[in-house]
C-alpha cells in the first residue's frame, strides 16, 4: 500500500543502483498517516490482533482492579459509617495497632464503675461499659456461635441509633434471663425462615477448663427483642450479636472486668475528640487507649488506598510487558516491511513521515486495545463485585455486602492514556530504525 502524494512537480535524482528518487521529500498529512497506519493494521489482522490483546489485558487489569478496589473501599467505609457513631469513642485497655485493640501485654483492667469517673470529664455525655464473650447457642437444627454482649440497654440505645427493636421490646430494666438478638440470628437467609421466634427460650453456653476436663457453662435465656436489620459492622450493635444486661453478663461470665467502655461525646469534631481522648487516657495514667470511629475510618481508608496502589502497580507491570511485546512485534514487522519502506522513501516520503506511520500504528493499537480493555475491565470488576459481595463482610456470620465497582471517567481516561502511552513509547525504537533506513539498502533487502 503506497500513499498517494500531492500533485505537484517533483525533481528526481539518482539515489543508487540506477534508481531515481524524488528529491526534497514529501511530508504526509496527519490524516494520510493515520489512514496508512490503519491500512497496515487491517492488512495484518492476526498479528495486530495479538499485539492489541496485550494492551487489552493490561488496561483491563488496571480498570478491573482499581474500580473494584474503589468500590470495595466505598462499601467498607459505608458499612463502618453506618455501624459507627462518629461522636462515640471506645476505651480499651492496652495499646492499639492498626486501629484495633491489642491488650496482650497489659495487666490493667477496666471495671463497670469506671464509667462514673469518665462521666465527670468535660465533654462526656454518657458512657456505658460492655462485656463480651463468644458463646454457642443451641437451636433446633444446629448450634451456632455468636458474640454475647452485656450492656446497659438505656445507655446503649442513647449511643447507637441502630439499637432499636423491630420485633418485641428492648426492656429498660431487663431481667437476668432476657436477651435481645440481632436480625440475622432471627432471619439469617432473609427469606422469612426464622431460626428462633420471639418468646423462645434457648440455652447458651461457653466452655471452661476444670483440670483436664472441659465444662460447659450454661445459661437459659428468653428472646424478648429482635433488632432491626443494621447491615453494617462496627463497635456498636450488629446483626449477628446477642445482648443481655450488663449485670447478667458479669454474673454469667463470672467477671468484674469489662471488655470496653463506650463514651458518647458532645461533639464529633476531630479536635474535640482528640482533646477528650487525651483527658480519658490521663485519667487512667495512659493504661488505656481511646479509639474513635473517625480515626478507625482514616486508618482503614489509608490501608485500602495502599492496597489500591499496590494492585494498580501490579496491573501496570502487565501493561509494560504488553509494551515489550509491541516493540518486539514492530521490530519483526520492520524487518518484513523493509522494501515497502524503501519504496516509500524512493517516492519521496521523508524519514519523519515513516517514523510517524509506525507511531501511528502503535497509537491506533493503543486506542483500540485501551477501549476494549476498559470494557473488559468493567465486566471483570462487576463479576468480582458480585462474587466477593456474596462472600459477605467480617463477622462470625457473614452478611452479604454489596460491592459496586467505581469506574469513573477519570479512571477510564487515565487507563486509556496509559495504554496509548505504553504503545507509543515502546514503538519509538522500531519507528526510529524504520525512519533511518536508506532507500537503496531498503530496496535491496529480500
What is the CA-atom radius of gyration, in angstroms?
34 Å
H and E string: EEHHEEEEHEEHEEHEEEHEEHEHHHHH
Indicate the multimeric state. Answer: single chain
General shape: elongated
Topology, number of strands: 16
Strand content: 15-25%
Q: If you average the pLDDT, what whole number results?
A: 82
Largest sheet: 6 strands, mixed, barrel
Q: Separation of termini?
A: 18 Å
- Helix content range: 40-55%
Q: Strand order within the widest sheet?
A: 7-8-13-10-12-11
Point out poorly predicted stretches: 1-9, 16-21
Judged by helices, strands and strand pairing, the structural class is alpha+beta
Protein model, in words:
The chain is an alpha+beta fold and 446 residues long. The chain is built from twelve helices and 16 strands. It has a six-stranded mixed barrel. Strands 1-2 form a two-stranded antiparallel ribbon. It has a two-stranded antiparallel ribbon with strand order 4-5. Helix 1 packs across helix 10 (351-391) and helix 2 runs antiparallel to helix 8. The longest helix has 44 residues, at 293-336. Mean pLDDT is 82; it is low at 1-9 and 16-21.
Describe the secondary structure blueprint for this structure:
Elements: E1 12-16, E2 19-22, H1 30-43, H2 45-83, E3 88-93, E4 95-97, E5 100-102, E6 110-111, H3 114-119, E7 124-138, E8 143-151, H4 153-159, E9 165-168, E10 178-181, H5 183-186, E11 201-210, E12 213-227, E13 241-245, H6 246-252, E14 257-258, E15 260-265, H7 270-283, E16 288-292, H8 293-336, H9 338-346, H10 351-391, H11 409-435, H12 439-444
Parallel strand pairs: 8-13, 10-12
Antiparallel strand pairs: 1-2, 3-15, 3-16, 4-5, 6-14, 7-8, 7-11, 7-15, 9-12, 10-13, 11-12
Helix pairs in contact: 1-10, 2-8, 2-10, 2-11, 8-11, 10-11
Amino acid at each position: 500500500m503506497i500513499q498517494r502524494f500531492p500533485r505537484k512537480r517533483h525533481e528526481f535524482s539518482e539515489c543508487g543502483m540506477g534508481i531515481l528518487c524524488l528529491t526534497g521529500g514529501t511530508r504526509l498529512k496527519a490524516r494520510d498517516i493515520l489512514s496508512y497506519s490503519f491500512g497496515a493494521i487491517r492488512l495484518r489482522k492476526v498479528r495486530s490482533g495479538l499485539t492489541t490483546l496485550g494492551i487489552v489485558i493490561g488496561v483491563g487489569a488496571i480498570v478491573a482492579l482499581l474500580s473494584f478496589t474503589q468500590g470495595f473501599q466505598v462499601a467498607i467505609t459505608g458499612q463502618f459509617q453506618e455501624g459507627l457513631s462518629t461522636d462515640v469513642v471506645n476505651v480499651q485497655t492496652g495499646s492499639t495497632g492498626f486501629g484495633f485493640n491489642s491488650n496482650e501485654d497489659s495487666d490493667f483492667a477496666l471495671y463497670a464503675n469506671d464509667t462514673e469517673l469518665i462521666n465527670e470529664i468535660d465533654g462526656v455525655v454518657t458512657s456505658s461499659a460492655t462485656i463480651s464473650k463468644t458463646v454457642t447457642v443451641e437451636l433446633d437444627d444446629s448450634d451456632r456461635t455468636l458474640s454475647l454482649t452485656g450492656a446497659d440497654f438505656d445507655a446503649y440505645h442513647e449511643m447507637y441509633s441502630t439499637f432499636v427493636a423491630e420485633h418485641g421490646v428492648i426492656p429498660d430494666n431487663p431481667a437476668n434471663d432476657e436477651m435481645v438478638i440481632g436480625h440475622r440470628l432471627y432471619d439469617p437467609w432473609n427469606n422469612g425462615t426464622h431460626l428462633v421466634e420471639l418468646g423462645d427460650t434457648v440455652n447458651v453456653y461457653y466452655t471452661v477448663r476444670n483440670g483436664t476436663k472441659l465444662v460447659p457453662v450454661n445459661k437459659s435465656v428468653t428472646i424478648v427483642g429482635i433488632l432491626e436489620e443494621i447491615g453494617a459492622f462496627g463497635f456498636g450493635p450488629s446483626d449477628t450479636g446477642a445482648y443481655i444486661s450488663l449485670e447478667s453478663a458479669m454474673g454469667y461470665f463470672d467477671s468484674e472486668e469489662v471488655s470496653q467502655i463506650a463514651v458518647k461525646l458532645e461533639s464529633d469534631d476531630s479536635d474535640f475528640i482528640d482533646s477528650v481522648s487525651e483527658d480519658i487516657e490521663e485519667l487512667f495514667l495512659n493504661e488505656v487507649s481511646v479509639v474513635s470511629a473517625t480515626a478507625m475510618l482514616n486508618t482503614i481508608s489509608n490501608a485500602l488506598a495502599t492496597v489500591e496502589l499496590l494492585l494498580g502497580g501490579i496491573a501496570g507491570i502487565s501493561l509494560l510487558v504488553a509494551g515489550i511485546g509491541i516493540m518486539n512485534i514492530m521490530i519483526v514487522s520492520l524487518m518484513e516491511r523493509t522494501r515497502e519502506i524503501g519504496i516509500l522513501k524512493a517516492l519521496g516520503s521523508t524519514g519523519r513521515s515513516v517514523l510517524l506511520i509506525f507511531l501511528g500504528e502503535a497509537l491506533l493499537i493503543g486506542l483500540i486495545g485501551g477501549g476494549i480493555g476498559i470494557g473488559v475491565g468493567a465486566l471483570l470488576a462487576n463479576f468480582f463485585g458480585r462474587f466477593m459481595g456474596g462472600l459477605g463482610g467480617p463477622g462470625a456470620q457473614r452478611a452479604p455486602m454489596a460491592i459496586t465497582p467505581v469506574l469513573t471517567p477519570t479512571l477510564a481516561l487515565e487507563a486509556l492514556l496509559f495504554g496509548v502511552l505504553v504503545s507509543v513509547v515502546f514503538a519509538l525504537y522500531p519507528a526510529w530504525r524504520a525512519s533511518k533506513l536508506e532507500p537503496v539498502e531498503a530496496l535491496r533487502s529480500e
